[in-house]
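Record TetR/AcrR family transcriptional regulator, 190 aa.
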Amino acid sequence: MKNDGSTDLRVRRTRKLLWDALMELLGESGRTFESLTVAEICERAMVHRTTFYKHFEDKYHLLCVGCEELNKELAAMDFEERMRRPMQLLEQFGHRRQFRTLMKSELESASIKSLMQRIRSDFMKNELLALERKDGPFSVPAEIIAEFYAGAINGIAAWWVQHGGDIPAETMDRYIGQLLNPSIFNQQSQ
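=>
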């Protein structure tokens, strides 16, 4: 988890230890998110359970907070670039252990897949709403664009990962560009 500079160092350290423990456990062969317990996460992180619950409601909350941190990294990239090259960015992030672990968990668990879909959709919706405030409304409501785009990218990414990523990311992005109407991101003239 990243340092935002405003949170106490001990809090950041504890959150990082818990996130790293979750990623390590998920990375172990045969481990699914559902099979993990808070006690296991705490033991791996060498953090007391009461400390865990001071920071997180449950393991799902820990997962959401960790994904929000990864989304902050994505948000630092140009929006249009992310929309044009989603698979190349997936490939770029795929070299990171945490991202690979999350993708593996998502493919193995319907509940994680649903949660990750919600996180991605909310992330995109918030970005689109910010763009609307700045530049005016889209021709299609931002919430609908976010659900559609996040669902499409999630499905294509899952297919791509399950098939070993044999098709180059650039080619996948070209296919996505052909399948999705880029005008959904057009904003209405004022």
